[in-house]
Structure formats: C-alpha cells, structure tokens
Sugar ABC transporter substrate-binding protein
Amino acid sequence: MNRRFVTVFGGAVLALSVAACGGEGAGGDTEESAAPEDLTIGVSMPTQTSERWIADGDSVREQLEELGYQVDLQFAGDDIPTQSQQVDQMITQGADVLIIAAIDGTALSSQLQAAADADIPVIAYDRLIRDSENVDFYVSFDNYRVGVAQAEALLTGLGLRTADGAPGEATGPFNVELFAGSLDDNNAHFFFDGAMDTLQPFIDDGSLVVKSGQADIEQVAILRWQQETAQRRMEDLLTSSYNDGSRVDGVLSPYDGLSRGIITALQNAGYGAAANPMAVVTGQDAEIASVKLIDDGVQHSTIFKDTRLLAEQAVVAAEAFLAGEEPEANDTETYDNGVKVVPSYLLPVETVYRDDIQTALVDSGYYTAEEVAAGQTDG
Ligand code: BGC
C-alpha cells in the first residue's frame, strides 16, 4: 500500500510547526503544545464494498500516521445508523478533528452539532454534508466537471464528438439510457447535472434518444450506488424498451460499480458478441476491475480521481485547523449545503480511455501493469 502514499507536502516541517503553534482554535481538549502523537483524527468512511473508499481510508490513515497522528479509521458498511454511532464515538473519545465521507449527506446533523459543541473541526471528505452549519471545510473533486467528462466520454464513444472536443463523424440517432447515483449523495446531483447539460443539446436535436423515456434523476438514481440495483434496472430496461429488436448504443453510468452491473446485464442479453457489440458504457473511480474491463475493450471509459491527492488535501486541511488556521480554499461559491456555502478545495479529474491506462494509472504508480492485467490489486 505504500505506493499509494505520496509525500508531496513537507510533512515533518508541517508537523513541527503544528506542534509549535499549539492547538489553539482546534478541537477537543487539544493542549497548547500538543504534539501529533497526542492528537487523534477521526476518519469516517462510508463503505468497504467499493474499492475507492478503502483506498481513500488507507491513504488518509497512512498520511496522517506518517506525520505522527493517532488515527481512528472506521468504515460504516453503507449503514446510516452505524456511521452515526461511529462518529458519536469518535467525538466522545476525544477526536481533535473529524474527516467524514457521509453515506447520507443529510443524516449527520446531530453528530455535527455535538462536534461543534466540543469545538472539533469537521472536514467533509468528497461528499458534502448538508443542512448543517457545522461543516468547516470540504475537500473533493470538481464534481460538475466529472459529469461533463462522463457525458463527453459517452459522446466520444458514440462518435458524436472527437476526443479533443470537435464534432464527430457520426450523426445517430443513438439509443442511450441514463443512470445516476444515490439521491442522498450530493455528488450524484452534480454528476447528473454536468452530464445532462452536456447531453441535452444532442437529445434536443435527435442524435441521442433516451428510448425508455426515463431522464429525470429521480427515475434513474440508484440507491446507495448498488451494483446489483443497477444490473436489475438495466435488465428491466432491456425488457421494457428494447424487446422490439432495437439496441442500446450507450449508457451514461456515473460510477464503475454501477457500470459493471450494467455491463453484466448487457452481456447476459448477448451484447459483446461480434454481431452485437457492447454498448458504450462510462464510469468513474478507475476501480481496478473496471480498468481491466476498459483494457479488455468492454467498458468504454472511467474518470480517474486520484484518492492519494484527495487524502493529502484532507490532511493539509486537518493540520491547518490544528494550527488554529483556516485551510486554504480554492472554491468559496459552489458548495452551498443548504445552510451555508462551505469553503472547498476541489481537485481536477481525468478521463481514462483504454489508451490512457498506462500514462494515467500505471506511470503514476496508482496501479501496476500486473494489477491491471489481473483486474485486482495485491491488497
Ligand atoms: C463519489 C464517487 C463514487 C460514488 C460511489 C461519490 O460520492 O464522489 O467517486 O463513485 O460516491 O461510491
């Protein structure tokens, strides 16, 4: 797992300056002269069923431990009461900062109130926590841009657009189906908005046809981002809308796990054979199983979000709070959580097609070539 650790920031220097500045303004019972060893960071991650959150959790923990902090890392099994309980416990056990990737962005208000009462700064990790004034900072990627990139990848795969953004040779009409993530995840809305703003002109001019007619986020959302639910929905769509000999040409999928469910449904219906090519299916997270599918020419694309860099931003923000400072934001407008605009640090995203696997994922040390070939990591 060490290869996932990037020492880009001057860790030791920062740790020393934190110790020197003391914990003024930081949470819990931070002493003036608290050393990292005496400080605990609570890290609450949603689930271990998706590889990306395991990588996030590991990265955050490794980077914090490298700086000398105590880390309480918990995964909540995609169960809201479990996450609430885990965060409650971090607070009662005296966490000095909380880093939270919420399952349901609206379900942690009372925990966040307790954190505020105990003067514990809260950093929302990748998923914005909504409806609470007690969210102090947000680290994420440019989530609207993720949706745009997914839609662009779909258009590129269908030939309606070239990879560098010029109009493509194809004219369509192409049948497409749309999927969105979990409605209780703020990101799902940003992804879908970015995608639909990009696809709508093509739907309007008839080059894309959503044959099922299901194009509202409420109709296409997949609760908890479950792969099996996506597979079932794709099976249902094939039965209800494609039993007349027509085919699905493309599927907008916002997450690799959903994409694998969708691909399974399509394969079970005969897609992927020479006479019936696989539909163009997008994705997100560069999960290793999907990277292999892309390498094998089955899945069309994914969006790479380097969890090492996101973890690093969370750590930088935590250290700023511990030093009694405000973390540096690069966006102070986009993320209104219903109560306030949460200052954010957003990272860029990268579309990965088959030809990009080597440069984006292997050369950067995210995966080895062997892992890509095997479709699994070495743990
Ligand atoms: C994350 C995505 C991820 C999805 C499902 C979202 O909040 O931003 O990267 O694919 O959750 O885990």
